[in-house]
């Protein structure tokens, strides 16, 4: 039998204490092992999340991944994202690229830093960047970052999204566990996560902006031919699947050469912008307006038969002709347009989409020239000869 340090044989009490200490050590080791395995699992899930958002090819995919995956892997009850969007540039471009913001109710846009809804902290030589704000959830104070806060939300972390020490928004995390986010908690992990998200956001938004520029007419701000050619193929395929008609307008400004000769190309550019605006005002958000080049515009109308498309075209014609275009206080011009309208009816979208698209455009173009040959300032959807 083992002797104690004093040379005496261990008593029953000594043996009991040693056994208890041994059990405590084993329990501690088991707890540490469990925590290590849990932390490894969390890190593995977050590494997979990082790879997924880095691979996101567009804005909806990135935002959707953040809202779908992050609450699960981080065991959160609420995740929202606030982006600073001065002058609504991001929203404008994303809407142009057909992003449906209603799909992302936890995506919040503000125009200024002060609207983020939390204190970013003092910035000085010792604290060059703001730190995350952790603490108990307050429904009134956190109304902006958590507009749809779930019942029972207890603690939150408001994490600035930083790019080159510039704040582009905040990642807002919420938990029903009151001890999840406390002011004493270390923030290195969530700061790292926010930095990855910030990089991905900036890259995707920049790419979407470039995509928008490549699909937009720089003079009028409406789409260009490249966009409408691509969109028309997509809509033909969709109309075929869902069985609805699509219509196509070809619009030409009458006697536009005279406009340029009279007021110069600068004045002509103003006329193009004004006409584009008047056309756009008569369309639905689901429709697409593009400048084909020169003084020609086209409109793609979704789920619109020939009769309804001709009605919209007449509204456009009347809007352009109805009031003069003011180029200055002293100079106003009267401008009219001619419009040809063609329709792809249900059941007629069989065949190659490229061939169908060309035929639809050619039909509208033919009707446009028929309108111009028969007096201009008119809408033609069927030929009378």
Features:
18% strand, Alpha-Beta Plaits, Beta-Lactamase, 2 domains, 45% helix, 385 residues, 13 strands, alpha+beta, 8 helices
Explain what the structure shows:
It is a single chain. The chain has 385 residues and is of the alpha+beta class. It folds into 2 domains: 55-213, GAF domain (Beta-Lactamase); 223-380, Reverse transcriptase/Diguanylate cyclase domain (Alpha-Beta Plaits, 2-Layer Sandwich), CATH 3.30.70. The chain contains 8 helices and 13 strands. It has helices at 12-54, 59-73, 89-96, 188-214, 225-242, 256-281, 306-322, 353-373; strands at 78-84, 107-110, 133-136, 155-163, 166-175, 223-224, 246-253, 288-293, 296-302, 325-326, 332-333, 337-344, 379-380. The strands form 3 sheets. The chain has a 6-stranded mixed β-sheet with strand order 6-8-9-7-12-13, sandwiched between helices. Strands 2-1-5-4-3 form a 5-stranded mixed β-sheet, covered by helices on one side. A hairpin with a 2-residue loop joins strand 8 (288-293) and strand 9 (296-302). It is elongated and about 120 Å long. The termini are far apart. It catalyses: 2 GTP = 3',3'-c-di-GMP + 2 diphosphate. It comes from Duganella flavida. GO terms for molecular function: diguanylate cyclase activity.
Q: Could you give the topology of this structure?
A:
Layout: H1 12-54, H2 59-73, E1 78-84, H3 89-96, E2 107-110, E3 133-136, E4 155-163, E5 166-175, H4 188-214, E6 223-224, H5 225-242, E7 246-253, H6 256-281, E8 288-293, E9 296-302, H7 306-322, E10 325-326, E11 332-333, E12 337-344, H8 353-373, E13 379-380
Parallel strand pairs: 1-2, 6-8, 12-13
Antiparallel strand pairs: 1-5, 3-4, 4-5, 7-9, 7-12, 8-9, 10-11
